[in-house]
Structures are given as C-alpha cells and as structure tokens.
Amino acid sequence: MSRAETDPLSEKGPGSEAAPAPRAAPGAEAAVASAVRRPSPLWTFGLLRSELVTTVRRWRTLALLGVLAVVPVLVGIAVKIETRGGGSADHGGQGPAFISQITNNGLFLVFTALAATLPFFLPMAVGVVAGDAIAGEAGAGTLRYLLVAPAGRTRLLLTKYATVTAFCLLATLVVAVSALIVGALLFPLGDLTTISGTRISFAEGLGRALLIALVVALSLVGVAALGLFVSTLTNSGIAAMATTVGLLTTVQILDQIPQLHALQPYFFSHYWLSFADLMRDPVYWDDLQKNLGLQALYAAVFGTAAWARFTAKDISA
Amino acid sequence: MDGPSATEREAGDAEQHVPGHAEAGVIATRGLTKRYRGGQLAVDGLDLTVPAGSVFGFLGPNGSGKTTTIRMLMGLIEPTAGTARVLGRPMPRAARAVLPEVGALIEGPALYGFLSGRDNLLRYDAADPTADPRTRSARVAAALDRVGLAAAAGKKARAYSLGMKQRLGLAAALLQPRRLLVLDEPTNGLDPQGMREIRALIRELAADGTTVFLSSHLLDEIEQVCTHAAVMAQGRLVTQGAVADLAAGARGRLVVTTPDPAEAARVLKEQGVADVTADGDRVTGEPPARDLAEVNAALVTAGVRVRGFALERASLEDAFVALTGEGFDVAS
Hints:
The complex is a heterodimer.
Chain A (H helix, E strand, L loop, with lengths): L1 H5 L21 H10 L8 H12 L1 H24 L25 H10 L3 H20 L1 H7 L4 H34 L5 E2 L5 E2 L1 H18 L1 H11 L5 H18 L31 H27 L5
Antiparallel strand pairs in A: 1-2
Helix pairs in contact in A: 3-8, 4-5, 4-6, 4-8, 5-8, 6-8, 6-10, 6-11, 8-9, 8-10, 8-12, 10-11, 10-12
Chain B lengths: L1 H15 L10 E9 L5 E6 L2 E2 L4 E5 L6 H8 L7 E6 L2 E3 L3 H4 L3 E4 L11 H11 L8 H11 L15 H12 L6 E5 L7 H16 L3 E5 L3 H7 L2 E6 L2 E7 H7 L3 E5 L3 H10 L3 E6 L2 E5 L5 H10 L6 E5 L3 H9 L8
Parallel strand pairs in B: 4-9, 4-10, 7-8, 8-9
Antiparallel strand pairs in B: 1-2, 1-3, 1-5, 5-6, 10-11, 12-14, 12-15, 13-14
Protein name (chain B): Multidrug ABC transporter ATP-binding protein
Keywords (chain B): ATP-binding, Nucleotide-binding, Transport
InterPro entries (chain B): AAA+_ATPase, ABC_transporter-like_ATP-bd, ABC_transporter-like_CS, P-loop_NTPase
C-alpha cells in the first residue's frame, strides 16, 4: 500500500513501469513486476488464513477438540445406561439442564452437552488457545519473525483474536454436532416440548439448537479477549494458558459465593447458562442480552488492554 | 525469481532516489540509545552509518549491544533516545513500508516445529501483506532451493538439524527481493562446507546490489566477506569504516625466527623495536620506522642466526583487541 502511495506511476499499469525503471524489461516481465509492486488489500487476509490453518494443525488443538467431542458421547451413553430399565434420567433436577428430556428426544443431548461443557471444558479450551496466541509465538521466537515480515502489531493481534473467536465457534460446533450424532443414534428424534410446555417441530428445534450453539460460542468471546490480554503479558505460552484457565476457575468459584452477589453480575460467566432461555416460548431475552452485552464489554476492555500492551511492548524474545 | 527480482530492484531504486532526497546510508542511526527497565544501558548514543551496497560487519563481544541495536533497527524494540533510519525512513514508525524490503535473521532461526520447512516459509510469507499470494509457492520453492533445502522441504522443521534450521531462517529472509539483509550470526551451527556456501551466497547477494548487514563473532568471516565493519563494546560504537582501513589502523608485527632469541631481542631493542617479546625461537615486536633491511643486517652483524624475518600483517583481530582492549569473546 505504502509503495503505491509513494509511487503514483505504478497505478497506471504495466506500460508506465518503463519510465521509473531505466532498464526495465519490456512486456511480460514488466507486467509481473507491476503486479508484484501493487499489493491488493485482500492480501492482508493471507495471515488470517495461515493462522486458522496453523491453529487447527496443532496437535494440541486437535486434542482439545477431541476431548470436547467425547463429552456428548459420555453423557449420551450414561443416560442410555441409566434409563435402560425404562426409568427417567431425572434425579430430582440434578445434573445439567435438559438431561431428563434426552430419552424422549435425542436433540436434547445437544442442549445438555452444551450446558455440561460451557462451565469448564469449552472455556478451558478457548483459554488454552487464546493464552498461547501471542505468548506461544514469543516463546518459540516466531513472533519476531512475524513482526519483521512485517505482520504489523495491530494486524497480528486482530488476526489472533479473529482466530480465537473462530475457535470458540468451532469448539462449540464440535460439541453440538457430536451431541446431535450421538443423540440421533441412541435416542428417538421428533417434535419437542419447550421449557414453557409448547410443542415445536423438529426442524424448529434444530434451528433453536443452532441458535443456542451460536450464543454459546459468543459467550466465550469474553474469555477469549481475557486470554489474549494475558498472552501479551508474558513470553511463556504455558504460563499464559495456566493463568487464563486459573482465572476462569477462580471466577467460577467466586460466582458461587453468596456474599459476592453484588459483583457477580460482572463476572463473565454469570449469565452463561442463560442460553436455556432460547428454549422458552416465547424466548426470554433479558439474561441473553445481559450475557451478550457483558461479553462485548469484556471483549472491548481486554481487547483494548491487549492492544495497548502489545503495540507498546519491546519484543525481546 | 531472477528476472522479476532484477526489475523489481531497479524499479525500487528508481522510486527511492527521489530528486532532492539525500541517501544518508541504508542504515543511519543518530544517538541511538536503549536503556532497559532497571537502568541497564544496553546501547549508548550509537551513530552508525551503513553505506548502500556494502557488506557491513557488525562486531562486538557478547553483551556489547549488537542484538539490541538490530532489534531497534527492525522495530522490535523502541529506542529510549535517538533516531534510526532504515532505507531512508524512520524506524519503527515506517516499519510497514520498510520491512517488506528487508530480510532478517535475528538471534538464530525460529520455526514452527510441527510444520514442514515449506509450510514455515509459506506462513512467514503470508505474514507480509505486500507479498503476492499468487507467486507465493514459487517464491518459497526458489528460496528453499537457494539455501540448499529443496530436498528437505517436506520434512517437519522439528526434525531439522541446527544447520538446516539456520538455512531455513536464511530462506525466510530471501522470500522476496530485498534491498537490505540483516543477518545475525548467519553461519552459526553450520559445518565448514555450509559456512562456505552461505558466504558464497552473501557475496552473490551483495553482487546483485543488496546491502548486507552481518553480525558475527567470527573475525575471519568478517574479513573474508565484509567491505565495511563497525565494532561495538559496552554499548558504544568503538569504530566504523572500511575493513581495509580498520586493519591498517592496527600496526603489523615484526617476527624474527632464530635459535638465539635472547641475543636477537637485545639487538632488536637497540634497533628501536618496541614491545619485544620472545617466545621459544620466535621474537616479535612493533616494527620501527627505519628500513627493516637495516634491522636485519644488524641482527646478522651481531651473529644472530636468522632463520626467518617477516612482517606479519595486522588482522582485524589485532585491530579489535587494540580498540576494545580485550579478547573477542569476553563478555563485558
């Protein structure tokens, strides 16, 4: 881009290349040179593509996704064994939301699996990927080469955040799809009953499941921003991951302490399970909106903090 | 890579030499200073000028501030005071415009172990927003070929030897036609054959007009490939200039080989030779201003059996020791 700014001649196409370059080769070569010298704004997304591909090629990422895929299988099998005699899986309201409904409709396994993984497994996976994002590159030394490439600090940080957000969605979908497959294999499918007691068709139920997966993924963007910020503070990927997961656990515990009820509405995990409200008819939006608003706030605050830190940081690793 | 790269470079030069723009050197720093948190002064008022087209050797003991300087030049570290201009533009402010034309190897290679050599280069190339994705795989293949890694391109970088990693790091610096290459210890970890290949590559790149800024702890390497050099000690620039001038600055030594060292030493002192030292059958000293033939004649007249009489040319190492007053690998 900057080259184009300093050399307006290059905007005029291959023919004008001969003017600034006294011995420029004619024809095809000049055309190639001109193509090389005029970067397209789209090229900037090459880093995002590389980042996405690199992230899912890491053994660690695949292991995390594997664990997430196994959770619905375990829940499904447990419910199946528990209800073999024709009984109900409902133990007086114990266990994750919707678990008592699974035997009637396999689709409920999606909701149950998301409710079971959202408090810990999903945010832990996101915390690992987010915590490693900058600190891992710094620890391996690859950060300095990305920056002299030059990736640009703001561009690299935005790319990393976009990748972590994409991972939030991917991780959630892995849980949802695995649960849907297991649910379909082990339990009957069909029309379902909402929390409010109304009947909706299976197609609409699938739509709600997709919507819930989206909301669950969005519930994780706050943790993602927090992890990214922690990641800019250290040169050790492991330390950043451990800190992020540690913070996550601490907040979850604090959210259970009644004396802290004044603070609890500001904990990123406080409204996480509000996604169940999407299964009401009509949908109860209050807590959902609070949840998404809180996530946006966390993303803005910690995203800004990460940017302020990363753009001013001396890269000495 | 050759055809377009030549065109590219000429076009780039034409663009850079805007009328009225004085080229002050490919790298020019004024009073460049870095004080780390905790008060340690790593680089102290550095005035460095790297002429265009030179192969510039950057020398100094470990801990003398070379790497901090390189990191400031590459925009990785913010200077505490002073300015740094690279390719005529201020760093780190103009990093996005300058760095696509700079290839760098800083403090050894850093690679993604779980990716192949080729995929490592594809990733680094994708990080550059001015790199054309349509020519990416061709440029990566050319860079791998240039450093002799074409056969190992598909192997995971984790399985590379230190020398192969070093080559891959060099390949990353050669992904695009560059106007400046900053190479920090480029032959580290290479066997003698590999060192020769890399030096040949550096000469070849320099012959194409690329300015090479080379830090090394191997003095003979600097003497072999560099046209210019700068010496740092304790964060300060001790000297800079053409390698020939630097070596000339340190005086050579007179070496007399004889079975009569004591007598030879006495005669040499009489003849005005300073700093005479005898070591076995070798007697050395600083040559006097007078004709050396007379010194030799005086030795023979005094009955000293002279087996060898020679003036050893000063090496860069002598110049270095004279300038810094210490051995080369001494950390300060």
